[in-house]
UniProtKB/TrEMBL annotation:
Pathway: Carbohydrate metabolism; hexose metabolism. It catalyses: alpha-D-glucose = beta-D-glucose. GO terms for molecular function: aldose 1-epimerase activity; carbohydrate binding. Beta-D-galactose binds at N96, R97, H196, A197, Y198, D267. Its EC number is 5.1.3.3. This is Aldose 1-epimerase. The active site is at H196, E330.
Length: 366
């Protein structure tokens, strides 16, 4: 009788609240690496790993109820460690680029490792994306959650201050990934944190993403030089390929002339409109899937990758040899902010913790 009661209670808990399981998949640098499977009350699944505090799988339905994984990522230790370095990961200490791997704080110049010549990208070659984080399974508002915590020592990758960083992922019963970031430091430093998941709303491995309909609530963007460092300007998106203030396909401008060259794709930061409740929306007409990005960060990096070949596909119907099959929408402060005084500050001090929230919300439209 007691066993029956326990089983019924377990089933009721799964129906109303879902469940989270943990599976150790190997050891990296002396620490266990696990896959965490969060299942909400609808049976939809989010998978995470403590290697890089990253997303590795998102299973959500299309307009016909068919479930697909819509993000890239491995589920074995080898595929995670040897796969895309940034894909799905919590990226820091400083997401995006810092020019020439240098910045000055209170008169002291700090030199960082170069991994995107001539710049530092996403915290350098051994950034937070490559670390094994501590983990704790929990719930938040009766919904499944995992908190990852990492202690970044003073002068790790050249950054000052000992920083304690946590990223809590909550998988809601409404198919929302809520990411809550919290960072504290023992002395002044800089910080910029994002999640670097790649998405394809057709389903992972199911072709191009350039027919996805994108809206970004940003009237301005930060132009970059030839090594992807912001010039310091904040320019209107109007009459440029960067204008997604009205919905249109991601690939519309790719392969077409812009500023005396062929426009090859997006890897640019948008200065988000402050009053917009939703930073960006992506709609896939084929599957009916919709993704909304909600954040309190001032910027959003839209990364489509390289695909001059998209124009070839539209015009001839032939499949190019290589193409971009996923996109990223990275909530963030602006790139190179420590060297750009006019940009929103990325300063972190002992008396003011860094707190931020980003939500990726998935739904369907018939």
């Amino acid at each position: 009788m007691k066993t029956t009661i326990i089983l019924v209670a377990f089933l009721i808990s799964n129906i109303f609240f879902g469940q989270t399981t943990q599976e150790v998949i190997g050891n990296h640098n002396g620490m266990d690496v696990s896959i965490f499977t969060l299942t909400n009350k609808s049976g939809h699944v989010l998978k995470l790993t403590n290697y890089g505090a990253r997303i590795v799988r998102i299973d959500v339905p299309d307009k016909n109820g068919k479930i697909d994984n819509i993000t890239t990522g491995g589920e074995t230790l080898e595929t995670i460690v040897k796969g895309d370095a940034f894909g799905g990961a919590t990226v820091g200490r400083f997401a995006n680029r810092i020019a020439n791997g240098k910045f000055t704080l209170d008169g002291t110049e700090y030199n960082l490792p170069i991994n995107n010549r001539p710049n530092t990208l996403h915290g350098g070659p051994n950034g937070w994306f490559s670390q094994v984080w501590d983990s704790e399974i929990g719930t938040k508002d009766n919904q499944q959650a995992v908190t990852f915590t990492y202690l970044s020592p003073d002068m790790e990758a050249g950054f000052p201050g000992t920083v304690t960083m946590s990223a809590t992922y909550t998988w809601t019963n409404d198919n929302e990934i809520i990411i809550d970031y919290l960072a504290t430091t023992d002395k002044k430093t800089v910080i910029n944190v994002t999640n670097h998941a790649y998405f394809n709303l057709h389903g992972t491995g199911k072709g191009f993403i350039f027919d996805h309909i994108l809206t970004i609530n940003a009237k301005n963007y930060t132009p970059v030089n030839d090594v992807k460092i912001p010039t310091g300007e904040i320019k209107p998106v109007k009459d440029t390929p960067f204008d997604f203030t009205t919905p249109h396909a991601m690939g519309d401008a790719i392969g077409k002339p812009f500023e005396d060259a062929v426009f090859n794709g997006f890897d640019h930061n948008y200065a988000l409109d402050e009053k917009a409740k939703v930073a960006a929306t992506v709609y896939d007409p084929e599957s009916g899937r919709v993704m909304e990005v909600i954040t309190d960060e001032p910027g959003l990096q839209f990364y489509s990758g390289n695909s001059r070949a998209w124009l070839q596909f539209k015009e001839t119907g032939t499949m190019p040899a290589a193409s971009r099959s996923s996109f990223a929408l990275e909530t963030q402060h602006y790139p190179d902010s420590p060297n750009q005084p006019s940009f929103p500050s990325t300063l972190l001090t002992p008396n003011k913790p860094f707190k931020s929230r980003t939500v990726y919300k998935f739904s369907v439209k018939n």
